[in-house]
Amino acid sequence: MKLSDFNYHLPPELIAQEALKNRTASRLLHVDTSTNPARLSDRTFADIIDLIDAGDLLIFNDTRVIPARLHGHKETGGKVEVMVERVLDEHNILAHVRSNKSPKAGSRLILEDAIHAEVTGRNERLFEIRFLNDENVYNLLEQYGHIPLPPYIERADTEEDKERYQTVFAQKAGAVAAPTAGLHFTDELLHALKDKGVETAQVTLHVGAGTFLPVSVDNLDEHIMHAEWVELDQAVCDAVSACKERGGKVVAVGTTSVRSLESAAKETGTLQPFNGDTRLFITPGYQFNVVDAMITNFHLPESTLLMLVSAFTGYDNIMAAYQHAIKQRYRFFSYGDAMFLSKLREKSQPS
User: Fold this and answer.
1) 263, 275 in Cβ contact below 8 A?
2) 118, 226, 323, 345: which is deepest, by most CB within 10 A?
């Protein structure tokens, strides 16, 4: 398949610029693949409780977004913007750097008029940067960093984003982009699902800024996926096994949970504990080993995430669902509406 197969026209006014006040008030497009073509139903996110059965297992990504964007200047005067990709240790990060001229190793940076830093090297597209302050990286980011809103949200971050661009179940700091399907859940909804008999488990995938990088090749076989850190323990494996044995559905909340689960099952076809980087690139034709249903937001044209959901629910079904969503004026991307996708039993390729 080619990159151009995954293009679609989105009216810019449908890109959500603000979060809704009530998380569960988002709309929900149910794409049901028990029919061919898939049946599309317009719902609200609160209806998710009707789509998940007692005995099903919800898998959440418990990563926590860090205030990863820093503005500043070089000691020599040029402006810079630093976007943390990964915290390496108490004083060192990998980051994307925007400036008129790329800083060289040895360049000193002053960020937010408070953080003194030095560029120590390069790692592919990323810069290795050492913070020279005595405080550790996480403390400095919490004090001075900005919430890293995606590039298609065309405004500065606000105090409200600190809470709203974070899931209610976020625990482990390390992401620089939110696992946005999880933004629709509230504590009240989670309690209602538990009361219904729905089981839950957590994985960790620290979402990187690379998730927003465009695919730069038309031949998808040539695409090199960015790396993201995954932690998945034996307890998750046991919960998935128990769910399958009782005939329940494994429902992944977000593409990050899907990639975590499928990465951990990639070698043997059976879920195993996993701790490390994944570069798993899922395109139509991929055989899913773990996930039965998925909750996800709408994704950018020509993105790897659009390719993933096309692999899961069928290319023709997804492209039809996106056209339906555009016609019905759904809100798109991180602060937008959601979809509930069931897995296609047969491969679906573009016609």
Assistant:
1) no
2) 226
Q: What integer pLDDT is reported at residue 6 of this predicted model?
A: 97
Rounded Cα distance between 314 and 263, Å, is 20
Whole-number Cα distances in Å, 108 to 25, 72, 83, 111, 145 = 46, 11, 16, 10, 18
Residue position matching structure tokens 């197969």: 5
Q: How many whole angstroms separate alpha carbon 169 and alpha carbon 185?
A: 9
pTM over 0.90: yes
According to the model, what pLDDT value does residue 13 have?
98
Give the single-character DSSP code of 267: T
The answer to whether 47 and 24 are in contact (CB under 8 A) is no
Residues 270-284 pLDDT 10s? 999 999 999 999 999
pLDDT, tens digit, for every residue of 99-126? Answer: 999 999 999 999 999 999 999 999 988 9
How do strand 250-253 and strand 57-61 relate by DSSP bridges? parallel
Q: How far apart are CA 222 and CA 217, in angstroms?
A: 7
CB 200 within 8 Å of CB 231: no
111 close to 98: Cβ distance less than 8 angstroms: no
The pLDDT of residue 348 is above 90: no
* Exposed / middle / buried, residue 232 (Cβ in 10 Å: 0-12, 13-18, 19+): buried
- Report all structural domains of the chain as residue ranges with CATH numbers, in order of start: 3-65+162-342 (3.40.1780.10), 69-144 (2.40.10)
Residues in the chain, total: 351
Helix, strand, or coil here: 277? strand
Q: Kindly give, in sequence order, each residue whose CB lies less than 8 Å from that of residue 113, ignoring residues fewer than 6 positions away.
A: 72
Q: Is the predicted pLDDT of residue 220 greater than 60, yes or no?
A: yes
Cα–Cα distance for residue pair 100/113, rounded to 1 Å: 19
Q: Where are the alpha helices (DSSP H) in 117-265?
A: 137-144, 159-164, 187-196, 234-245, 255-265
Say how far apart CA 178 and CA 315 lie, in whole Å. Answer: 25
| Cα dist from 298 to 93, 208, 323, whole Å | 30, 18, 11
